[in-house]
Each structure stands twice: as structure tokens, then as C-alpha cells.
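Annex B. Sample input.
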Amino acid sequence: MVGPENSEKPTILIRGWLWFRDIPSKPLAKLRGVARQAIELAKDDPRRLIHSLKVGLTVTLVSLLYYLQPLYNNLGASAMWAVMTVVVVFEFSVGGTIGKCLNRGLATLAAAALALGANHLAILSGGENEPYVIGLFVFIQAVAMSFVRFFPKVKARYDYGMLIFILTFSLVSISGLRINEVIKLAQARFVTIVIGASTCLAVCILIYPVWAGEDLHKYVGKNISQLGNFLEEHMDQCFKRSSDARIEITKPSISNLNSILVDSKGREETLANLAGWEPGHGQFMFRHPWKQYLKIGNLTRQCACRLEPINDYLNSNIQAPQEIQCKIQEAFSESGKTLKELAWAIETMTKPSSANPHIENLKTASENLKILLRSGIKGDESDILQIIPIAVVMTDMVSSVEQIGDAVNELSLMAKFKSKTGNGVEGESEIGHDKNCIEIGMAEIPSLSVAIDERTEFSADEQILI
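Annex B, continued. Sample output.
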């Protein structure tokens, strides 16, 4: 007869064996997961893999300064600074690499020159006072440069240079206390940094260059296009006519706009900062108006913010009169067409002349909605009162779209976009409204009135519409 204690032993042994058997499979599963993630990253943007290969090539090239004896005899152990320079300054984009190279080179040159001056003053002060004078200079420059880093403009463009200045000044000035040939030390450090930075620039620019300005240009156009697609296509699906001629409202999702509202600001500012370091390339001339892209991006985010209260309205159970629904749908459609035309103008770097008709139609749709609300509409008084704030938001959204159009026009003038040729795509898509909605003209709208209590209070914008 087997007791309880004896019956537990085989169970423990089986569990132990299963645990021991699964030990090799766990690392393999993790490795497979990492491999899948690496493949996805490479497929998502093949430039990442190319950048990694470029970094490996550059590090190998500058390592020859240390491997080859003739080069090592001239530079000595300072040749290792070339490898360190490549590791810290080689960035994904050309603008990032140029910015770091210039920051490192100029900061090293300025700090080394000042450190030599500090050493000379320390020598003049006497042998016993020399360490104290050097320590005072190191303290003053470290405090000053660290504080200067907090300036917003310095933080954005020259923060890396400030760090290199502190490092170089401290190394050269302190080394002067123990090394007699401090000038040779500073010279070797500067030469190796120039060699490393030059190799980085050559590989970064000549082999599959990644331009931050081009990425910014495409990113801003993509955001405007996403917003236009949402307004024209997705919102159009929110208005579907049922068999009893009532307009049903589906619940749209604004998850596609999260990238515009949340992530775009930081990315645009980073790309614009890096693009400022880049020379003229391709269709982008020297001193291209990159800051104008930031203005367009801000206006795009403001327009996207207008959709949140409209989304709440579409998710509600309010059944507005058919006339108002048609006018809101018309404003959505024209806003989407306008934004898509503006995005196309940015992507192709052509003047946005084809967007002008849509902007005029958008203004007309907005005015029609205002006139329709002023004329009075039959329906539930509470529903109509809740629609008035939505109409105000619609007016603000129309204004945002017009501002985006003005900003894109300014960009086309500043960047000298080419005019559209006769072979260009000039076609205008038909307005996809319901036939009954299009037939509703302002001349056909009867003079209706809504019994609104005179004691009802409205906001300033709502009073303008009423």
C-alpha cells in the first residue's frame, strides 16, 4: 500500500523533469522573439539596417589608424579618439551627423585653445600656485557651460558641443600639470577628431544618405493627408441613409489621429532642428524654410483637436434635421478634399492652386450652415440647441483648414514650389453627397422658425450663429 508521502515523490520528480526539459527551450523562444522583432524593424524601415552597416564600415576604417604602424607612430594612443568620435557623432540622418561633427570639432578647438591659455596663466602664477589656478579655471568653465546648456536654443542645437567643451577643457588643462608637451596632446586630439568626423561625413553623405529635411517634408504632408482622409472618407461613413429616410449615425473612431495629436509635435521639432544643419540637396535649396513646416504642423494639430467634440456629437443619439445633417456632411467632405489637395501639393512640391476651389466651396458650406441655423429648422428644440455648439466647432474647423491652406501657400512661395503644368492632375472629385442633400438649396429652404425661449442663454459664438 502506497502512502501519501510516497505518492508525492513521483509527482515532484515528474515536475522537476519537465522543468529541466524546458530549460533549453526558454532561451530559444526568446531568441526567436528577438529575431522576429529585428526582422520587423528592418522591414518597417530598411534604412535602419543600412545605417548599422555604415556605422560598422566607418568604425573599421578609422580603426586602421590604430592597427597600421605608420599611422600609429604619428598619432600614438590618441588615434583611439577617432574611434570614439565615430561612435558618438554618427547619427541616422545627415543633419544629425553634421550637427554633431561641427559641435564636436568647434568645441574641441575652442576648449583646447582656452585650456592652453589657462595653462600659460597658471605657469606665470608660479609653480606652487599652478594647481590652484588650473582648478579655479576648470571650476569656472564647468559652471558657466553647464548653466548655458539650459538656454532653450543652446539646448536644441549646441548641447552636445557644450558637453565636449567641458570635457576637452578639463582634460587638456589638467593634463598640462603632468605632461610637458600639452600643445602636442591638444593637437593630436584635434587631428584625430577631424579624421573621425570627416570619415563619418563621407560615409553618411555618399552611401545611401538619410535627409532629415526630406523626412520632415514627407511627415507633414502625410499628417495632412491622414486628416483629410478621416474627414472625407471616415466621416462620410457616419451619415448613412436608412430605409425610412432618417439619417443614422455610426460611431467613428479617432484612433488614427492619435499620432497627429500626441507624437507629431516632438518629431517635427526634432526633424526641423536636424534639417537646419543639412546643406542644399535635391529639391530642397540651402536655407529651406523648415520652420514653416512647424507652423503647418501646429495648424494641423489644432484642426485635429476640433474633431473631438464633433466625435462626441456623432456618438450621441441626437437626431438633427436632415438639412443640418447635409450641411455638416458637406463641410466635412469639402474640408477633407481641401486637406488632401494641400497634402498632395506639399508632397509634389507644386503650388496648391487646385485646392482653391475646394476652399471656396468650404467657405460656402460654412456660410450655408450658418444661414440654415439662422433661418430656423423644425425639430426637437433640445436637439437643435445641442447642435448649435457643434456648428460653432464646425466653423472653427473650417477656419483651421483655411489657415492650413494659407500656410501651405506661404511655404510654396518661400520654397519656390513649381507651378502645375498642363499635364498635371487638375481633376476635382465629385462631392459624394446623397442626391436629396445636394438638391437642398438655400433658395428652396422655407422660412421656418424654432420656438426657442427668449430666456435661453447662449455663448458669444452661439449668439453669432443664431
